[in-house]
Model the fold of this input.
Amino acid sequence: MTQLTELLARLQSGETQARDALFAVAYPELHRLARSRLRDGGRDTLLDTTCLVHEAYLRFVTAGELRAEDRRAFFAYASQVMRSVIVNSVRERVAQKRGGDWRPLTLSTQLTLPAAADEQRILKVHEALEVLEQADPRLGQVAQMRYFGGYSEQEIAETMDVTERTVRRDWEKARLILAELLR
Amino acid sequence: MKLSVSQTAQLSRLLDEALPLDAAGRRAWLEKQSAEYPDLAEALRKVLLPDDSLAAGFEMLAALPKLGGAMEAPALTTGNLHAGKRVGPYEMIRPLGAGGMAQVWLARRADGAFRREVALKLPALTHLRADLEQRFAQERDILASLEHPHIARFYDAGVDPNGLSYLALEYVHGEALTDYCDAHRLGTAARLKLFLQVLDAVQFAHTKHVIHRDLKPSNILVNESGDVQLLDFGVAKLLEAEEIDHTQLTGVHGRALTPDYASPELLRGEPVDARCDVYSLGVLLYELLTDVRPYALRNAASIGLLEHAIAMVEVKKPSTRPLADTAAARGTTPEKLARQLRGDLDAIALKALAKDPARRYSSAAAIAQDLRRHLHTRPIEALPARVTDRLWKFLLRNRILVGAAVTAVVAMLAVLGFLLVRPSGEAPGDLWLDPLARARLLRLTDFAGSEQAAAISRDGRFAAFLAASGGPLDIWVTEIGTNRYRNLTEGKIQQLRNPEIRTIGFSPDGALVTFWTRAGDGSRAQDVNIVAAPTAGGELQPYLPETAEFDWSPDGKRLVFHTTAPGDPLFVRMATDVTAHQIYVAAPGVHCHFLTWAPDGEFIYFVRGDPPSADWDIWRVRPSGAGVERLTFHHTRVTYPVPLDARTVLYLATDADGSGPWLYVLDVVLKRPRRVSVGLERYTSLAANADRTRLLATVADSRSDLWRVKVDSGGPPRGTAEQIAPVSQRASAPRFGPGYIAYVSSGGARRGIWKYMNGTATELWGDASVDRVGTPSISPNGRRIAFTVQRGGATQLYAVDNDGRNVKALTRTLALRGDLAWAPDSQSLVGAIVSDGEPRLARVFLDATPPQSIVSDYSLDPVWSPDGKYFVYTGAQVATIFPLRASAPDGRPYNMPGLILTTGARRVAFARNSGSLVFLRGGIDHKDFWGLDPQTGVERQLTNLPANFAIGDFDVSPDGAEIVFDRVQESSSVVLIERGKEFEVN
Done:
């Protein structure tokens, strides 16, 4: 078994230290994929995170690093990594702009995200999500998978092993709470 | 409103109570609860009785840049649209449906100008594109002119003052084509007739230069009159995110384009033409004929896997798919249906589904023509090419072409090469279609290590490459055909290897072998230089200072090179000058490598990209610096471009999934790449001589061999292992029988079970159409060998005598997994059968008796003890480890010392003489054999093998004196590809 599979298994069995190791493995891959998707894109290039997660999953499976059975665990986790990828990029970019030396972002390490106002929004949503996650982990997971993973209700239901109806209800609740937190 | 975590948690809990209530109930509930939770009172009220104060929050959520496919679009939740709402000149009547990308409503003209009702499609776009109106205006006229009896009319498109974009289309009332055919129980001929209507419509649109791009059953309706109506022609293009070459499948409209019907080039983001519709039509035809789609994936929700399958997996012929249900629905038998589909219809479907657009039908009309010919039992266009295609692939796959003796087979191939049917009037050059046609392949080297970075002199006489044959990495040179090799650097140069550039070359006259080298980390300009060694051997000499790569023009008069300055600037200078002109430089951090002149001297090809992310592609520039052009859009590792002529370039590229590198060919005019190599060999470098008659490549492959190591039951662990020499290339899973070793061979075309006895290896059973052969299990009396065979996802149990006779196969397929073990009574086998996703050991019989369950938990890979009293097996994996368990024949647990095995080392075997259990232990690349005494629990190390022995499966000899195991090693070789004088370039 490979590092990834092992880490996922440990994470699922409750070992939280495995999270950092898992992050270290999955992050560069997803970041690289995200970057190559946004490369050459103009202002309106959009980032389909679900596809990225699928693609990363596929690469890991083809390289023998993941088994097909790990899919659920990987997908559940990948949206979290995607979130970090996006949030980190936004933070970098915001910091860079403040630093005054703003260069066009071409083939650098940052993602090319659209307008500046959106950066602040992403960070605010990220912070609100952090609160929600700690308050109600399942709601937080659903919200994260929707926004940062871009998964459909069916995919979330499948990954979290609950019914679609449950996902819908959770999502409605999460939306309300997030909107309240963002007020 | 800043709530703390605990407050938010409380809020969440309370909402569970209150959300199910209606407005009145909520108000009542709020009155009661506000007193108990004063700090949450305001938040509760805002959430439960929404007013505008939450709008800001919702707006923020909704207006996020679109991150995923499932996000809401602003202003387009169902609440915003209602009957009677005005959108542009239309008034909504009722909703017709909604997909991920748009909502569709029945609408009519608000001004009553036309009484006809339309289907109003409202795409869910989050960003208003500035030029959307303009695009609509451009396309509107073209699409509106598509008047055809089988195409739903496009009336109008626009953006209303509120920013809502809309498309007005003919409202068609009907059933999806596939549903209609099923509901009316149409037979094959009737389905084909409907399909011909579809082809007619698509062909008409193509002549008007409108590609559909999203053909699928839900877009092809059959109306009440039984006529086909195609919907959404040209709509996909209208809603595209960007008009650039690499249109993302996941553009503005998320994953609106169904991957099931999308062509490989569309998925890769390459430029598409009418043939992408041909592909979708192929999928549709396939589905109409068989009721299943070409790719059999269990869980098609995994879009990434589907995309991978579409791009890489070979489609199975319709007649070979399971047809029982389909035949029943058509009112015929599976045999009759298969016969109907076999031959013509198979060929037509597969030709429409060819992954390479050049191999597909070039138009919908071409498919229609072949279908009509079939219906009139005339010969069709689709058949001849496929036969030679398969033969070529078969020969290449068998590695018959890679070897010292090549003759008769190649001659036949040469003859057949003429018969390859080329699509007529196709734009790509002949060379692109078959750059290796009539080529001879010869393996030049036999080094044990891995060779790389091959180079060939201009006259094609000498080959140079990097190799480490048991020692340091050096540059070796050989005169091709002499089989003698000379070491040019003899350990004197430290840094020679750099997979990201072309490191070795020859001077134009062939007298010198040039190579790249680096001092330190290369941070200073003077650290990177080109050094040369005389081809005949001798003192090393400097060649080009402060240069990373270079190439002389074909006439030898000009030199192009790049330095390591930021952006890898490219320079050109005359051979006689000292000053060089910079002709191109990339942005800092971007690199330009593999500079190569085209044979006509008109262009310099190079690979441009970003090393850390392995994101490269081929570009070219004229020697003057003009005409910078990007040619490929792989976004992966691309290396070693070798221009063959003015419009064809060979190169190496890895695929999006990381596999490869494979050999590719590019047509530079059409910017269309195509994979050339068909086997599993990975190409690690590529070079050509001046007239391109000879190509040199290094090819990497892995091999699996059998080895033996002696075990001394009393003495110290042994450290030497020697290779057993069976004939086949991939030998694995050895098992001892009386006087012989049985093993699995998967090299070459056939996979099967072989026997190694007295120094010779013979095949006991083999078959070419098999996906996988399981480990041989030898009966207690040594006479019979049982094994599993996997074909197309189904597993069968086979048994054969130890002389290859009496092959018997259980006709019923069983979901067997892992190793089998004969029970001591020789009447049955114990093996794991998978049900509900879990393998569980059961007794399996060689006649038709159904299996009997033995172990109720997860259990795999049984091994019987020598005395037959119990068998051991591995339990479920927990993290990296597997517990070893033991069971009596009836399934009762048997007491044994605990043993924990790790992944990569799950196999155990008994040594018959001592009764000890042998297993593997150690790090990933350095394992040794250990023995466990089942009575006492004492463990003892048996071997002391060197590192880098990738041991897989093994068995212990009956006398316990030796262990035979399989070992995987990477190997590579230098291969010469002789393309023949016909391909000389002047």
Observations:
- The radius of gyration of chain B is 34 Å.
- Chain B has a mean pLDDT of 80.
- Residues 308 and 891 of chain B are 43 Å apart (CA to CA).
